């Protein structure tokens, strides 16, 4: 549903609630084992590199680390014979610190004018 610009912070709060809920409840019980099995399919140097990029992204917020990690996973998807689409999803999800989404994050769809005319009168 489109909202006015004045409602964008409320949508962002809702997105954060969805992210936290998904982080807590979106993982299957064997999630860590599946991630470890997917990483074990990688060559050791690639696995260390992927772990470093994931850590740099999650701890320091480096966007280029996320891009490098994603490139490594896509390279593995093309080059490792036993690689599956699930392995790609697991490792991309681990890099981005996300799990299987339970709640969908809402997007901000702004209208051209504020939805509540009274809010523009106070500005």
Characterization of the model:
It is built from six helices and no strands. The chain has 123 residues and is mostly helical. α2 (31-40) crosses α5 and α4 runs antiparallel to α5. The relative contact order is 0.22.
Low-confidence stretches: none
Total number of helices: 6
- Provide the gyration radius in Å: 19 Å
Order of helices and strands: HHHHHH
Described by strand count, sense and barrel closure, the largest sheet is: none
The portion of residues forming beta strands comes to under 5%
Q: In one word, what is the shape?
A: elongated
Kindly state the percentage of residues in helix.
Answer: 55-70%
What oligomeric state do the depicted chains represent?
single chain
The class by helix and strand makeup works out as mainly alpha
Taking all residues together, what is the mean pLDDT?
Answer: 77
The N- to C-terminal Cα distance equals: 24 Å
How many runs of DSSP E, i.e. beta strands? 0
Brief summary of the model shown:
It is built from 6 helices and no strands. It has 123 residues and is an all-alpha fold.
Task: From the structure above, extract its key features.
single chain; 123 residues; mainly alpha; 6 helices; 63% helix; elongated
Question: What secondary-structure arrangement, pairings included, does this model have?
Answer:
Layout: H1 8-25, H2 31-40, H3 44-60, H4 63-79, H5 85-95, H6 117-121
């Amino acid at each position: 549903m489109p909202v006015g610009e004045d409602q964008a912070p409320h949508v962002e709060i809702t997105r954060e609630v969805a992210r936290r809920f998904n982080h807590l409840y979106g993982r299957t019980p064997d999630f860590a084992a599946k991630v470890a099995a997917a990483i074990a399919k990688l060559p050791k140097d690639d696995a260390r590199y992927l772990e470093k990029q994931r850590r740099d992204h999650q701890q320091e917020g480096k966007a280029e680390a996320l891009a490098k990690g994603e490139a490594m996973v896509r390279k593995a998807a093309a080059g490792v014979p036993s690689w599956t689409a699930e392995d790609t999803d697991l490792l991309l999800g681990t890099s981005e610190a996300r799990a299987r989404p339970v709640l969908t994050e809402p997007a901000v769809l702004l209208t051209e004018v504020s939805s509540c005319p009274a809010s523009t009168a106070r500005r």
